[in-house]
Fold this sequence. Notes:
By secondary structure, the protein is of the alpha/beta class.
Amino acid sequence: MEYFSTRGGDKVSAAVAIQExxxxxxxxxxxxxxxxxxxEGIGEKSYVEIAAGIFALYLRQxxxxxxxxxxxxxxxxxxxxDVAPCVSVGDMHILELWHGxxxxxxxxxxxxxxxxxxxxxxxxxxxxxxxxLTATSGDTGKAALEGFKDVPGVKIIVFYPKDGVSxxxxxxxxxxxxxxxYVIGVEGNFDDCQSGVKALFADAELNVLLSMNDKQFTSANxxxxxxxxxxxxxxxYGYRQLYRAGRIELGDPIDIAVPTGNFxxxxxxxxxxxxxxxxxxxxxxxxENDVLTKVLETGxxxxxxxxxxxxxPSMDILVSSNFERFLFDISGNDATLVNKWFRELQETGxxxxxxxxxxxxxxxxxxxxxxxxxxxVTIKRVYEQYGYLLDPHxxxxxxxxxxxxxxxxxxxxxxxxxxxxxxKFSQAVLSALDRPIDQVAETDMPQxxxxxxxxxxxxxxxxIAFLPIRHNRFCAKNEMRDTVKHILDLA
Length: 491
Ligand SMILES: *Cc1c(COP(=O)(O)O)cnc(C)c1O
């Protein structure tokens, strides 16, 4: 199985795609085809077995034993036995993807990615030091830091928007241990961080300098194929759970709703469907930054608008990188069209889909939006009705999914991807529950929320209050390059 770039460059192996992250032509690597993974017998398979089966289809360069070891190392020590539990709340089947070490769904991929990179390095005979450059809107950063912490031959540098993440997220990152971890608060928003990181990847002079020093950039963002692949697995696993709970017969179609930011999570659901998972419809849920809702409705992708701060910061994104992979697929792998769209996006901040592309997009996926106020109402209602606590991101998905279920008379069972534990966003959750918090320090809020709801704080989050701050770097958005050079000791 080889991989090509959405911008039309040469094919590469899986190992190269995973090591490079972004293709040299600025495109994203995609597999040349999507092999079938049948659902027969899925009820008897464990998470790790499903993961090993799916990984093997895409990573033929690695032996089954290597894959089995990587998968077991990723999921057995750091997750409960039921890696991603499915909880039914009313008509909604909530797939909890946040039982890993950092309490967000990013762990599902970022515990696996370092292991895949290690295999890829061995396979290419590449002994350069890997420098993982990451832009984060909050959750990727910590999950990547935990995944790559103290991995030999790797340094990890994380840029986050200084005033764009929750207090818990910031504490999680700034208390990270490890001798190879660097965390920098940028004076700007997530798009500034992401475009800054993209510019560093594309910086020819810097890359030569790195190479002369036996180093190489790579990405832990969902532009890396090694991040997307592990995410396909849990949609199969969610289906298995619905089947085992007697909610569906094997082969029955389901709908899947995903609170979306960079479009990685929902793209993985689309790929699962292409591989044979019986999915009727995908629902892409956005917050106030509803660029994706608009493009799914009108065919116009317009990023020329202010980025709004919401209670779901991991979805505060105007340029959703993985949408490019989706469009590449929908257009029948038309790199010329993809180049045209993304050149226009770069030059003018927007592009329009041709009518036949738009209708194919709309056949594949629906979009919906819920703002922070609506998400808050949902958090309160679901808590009062079911005693179940949603985080603000999942609440956006829940709101959009509920509207969809009502409009479609609950035709198919709906699986909702739950992307974070509510304690990562205690302030927003407490406000949604109408708790008075004016006088409360943000760092005391998780305890307050636990006292009120008796839903336990995850252990990893409870601990951060007692850890020393280890990272104190900040920079302006035009200083990211110098910061990286300084950290890597490049002249
Ligand atoms: C990253 C993240 C999202 C968005 O996922 P994408 O794959 O970027 O679309 C949604 N919710 C939470 C909590 C996240 O951390």
